[in-house]
Amino acid sequence: MEKKKTLSFTFSIVAIILGVTLFKQFDFENLKFEKTGLAIVYIIVFVFSIYVLIKNFKNK
After folding, report:
1. Where do the domains of the chain lie?
2. What is the C-alpha to C-alpha distance for residues 52 and 9, in angstroms, rounded to an integer?
3. What's the pLDDT band for 2 if we cut at 50, 70, 90?
4. How far is CA 45 from CA 1, 2, 29, 51, in A?
5. Cα torsion at 22, 25, 31, 34 (round to 10°)?
6. Which residues, in sequence order, are CB contacts of 22 under 8 Å at separation 6+?
7. How far is residue 50's CA from residue 8's CA, in Å, rounded to a whole number?
8. What would the pLDDT profile of 19-31 be if each residue is shown by its tens digit?
9. Cβ atoms 11, 49 nearer than 8 A
10. What's the CA dihedral at 45, 47, 48, 54 to 10 degrees?
């Protein structure tokens, strides 16, 4: 049980950091990211971390 809490906490911190980073890198005037390649990697990891958090929340 303690391992799931640690895993959930870690993925929540990762999701928050990546969400803020993606928000800061997005240019709302041109509707583009400043660094497209890096943004793609951030989005993939962000979606994976959200998926893990939802999966752990449903199992509770």
Report:
1. 2-59
2. 11
3. low
4. 24, 23, 25, 10
5. -130
6. 33, 39, 42, 43, 46
7. 10
8. 999 999 999 999 9
9. yes
10. 150
